[in-house]
Known about the structure:
Blueprint: E1 3-8, H1 16-24, E2 29-32, E3 41-45, E4 48-52, E5 65-68, E6 73-74, H2 76-88, H3 93-96, E7 97-100, E8 104-105, H4 108-121, H5 133-142, H6 155-175, H7 184-198, E9 202-203, H8 205-214, E10 219-222, H9 247-253, E11 262-268, E12 271-273, H10 286-294, E13 307-309, E14 311-312, H11 313-323, E15 327-331, E16 341-350, E17 353-355, H12 362-367, E18 369-376, H13 393-406, E19 410-414, E20 422-424
Parallel strand pairs: 1-10, 1-11, 2-5, 2-10, 5-7, 6-8, 7-9, 11-15, 14-16, 15-19
Antiparallel strand pairs: 3-4, 12-13, 16-17, 16-18, 19-20
Bound molecules: guanosine-5'-diphosphate (GDP), 6-O-phosphoryl inosine monophosphate and magnesium ion (MG).
Guanosine-5'-diphosphate binds at residues 8, 12-18, 40-42, 44, 295-296, 300, 331-332, 334-335, 414-417.
Amino acid sequence: MAVTSVIGLQWGDEAKGKIVDLLAADHDIVVRFQGGANAGHTVTVDGTRYKMSLIPSGILHPGVIALIGNGVVVDPIALAEEMERVRQAGVDLTAQLRISDRAHLIMPYHKAEERVHERAAGQAAIGTTLRGIGPCYQDKVGRRFSVRVGDLYRPRWLRERLSNTLDYKNRVLAALGAEERFELEPLLKQCQQWAEQMRPYVIDSVSFLHDALERGQRILFEGAQGTLLDVDHGTYPYVTSSNSSMSGVASGSGIPANRVQDVIGVVKAYTTRVGSGPFPTELHDEIGQQIRDRGNEYGTVTGRPRRCGWFDAVAARYSARICGVNRLAVTLLDVLTGLDELAICVAYVWQGKLLKTVPAHPEVLAECQPVYELHPGWQDDITTVRSVAELPVAARRYLKRIEELVGAPVSIVSVGPDRDQTIRVTPHEQALTV
Ligand code: GDP
Ligand code: IMO
Ligand code: MG
């Protein structure tokens, strides 16, 4: 389809990068629309792992344009490092990379601010990636202290803005007890370097995308984080600072939501979360550890062990509704191989009441007890399976149940990290019927 969107329905790390890479082959442009270098998207091609952070995962396909949209917060230092890695992988950045002139920049003081805030929060810390995401979006919405990519090419404007900003930021950092201070001239010099580094790629991304649509080109939106980390719909305040659900597509790209015909919700066959916040189906036992080890559940960005738990169909359905998901990609199914029994959370119990959706308050969600439905597991290795028919019956039943509970058909199943370790479920296969 002409415009497709890939969105995580859990707390991030659903293997969006793998799915985007897979689908990028059938698209002309892949667009990141929110988040920044807090994202860590892994793409594995013929055994080689690529870690993408700010640059859209589709860039590994020659000829596909990778656009960093206006809603992204761009850390120029992280971007320069990533550009170098991607260049070394043989990508022609001049031909393929584009950056919106409306995207906001993450400045060194954003990261300093976040470090001091997280440290001061103690037990109440969000457990962020410390990439400066929150402080940058705060300044974007606050309007006074933000710098956009396009500002790098307006020296007078930039000097005036940064001069006011540094004055304020240094006072805030001092009040918060941080030692770091930022000086205008060295920062302006850095900005000049960043301006030159980015110059070949900076465009008016909004008209670029609309012109592409008019020419009949196919666009793929790549979500970062997941719907449960969305600042409006996630488990607030344990969320990221952007709209990481479908609603971020329109604001973060300038393409209206009604142009997106295909919304693919990505879910792991179980659930993970990094950082703080409620997680009703979290496992603190050896099954949780087994999933962590088999799924290599350690953060791509920070290396932190991910919290692991059973598939939460209440949360996934909540996210699927918010995003208007019309099909699902279920990933890391192979990680569940070998477990005798699998549990799916079908409701929560809170203070004796049965809840069928995600409550707004984090304290309420933290007190929710999951109601589990048990399913038999399977023992056969499925990493070489390439069609639904070859999957063990128990795996097909498990997928079918996810489909029913979440409310959208499963159209992609991932059974290993590699691009090839994928099952495409065709509608006429009646694939999951067992
Ligand atoms: P993203 O942030 O949503 O793109 O996901 P991440 O890349 O952070 O995390 C997903 C992890 O699972 C990565 O290490 C992938 O290489 C890996 N992965 C993706 N799909 C599969 C799969 O089907 N099976 C297994 N075992 N690993 C997978
Ligand atoms: P991808 O795109 C998983 C989490 C952090 C923290 C919270 C806020 O790889 O799925 P932030 O730095 O954004 O202010 O942190 O959100 N978080 C993620 N968790 N995957 C991600 O990205 C994440 N990006 C942020 O751990 O709990
Ligand atoms: Mg990730």
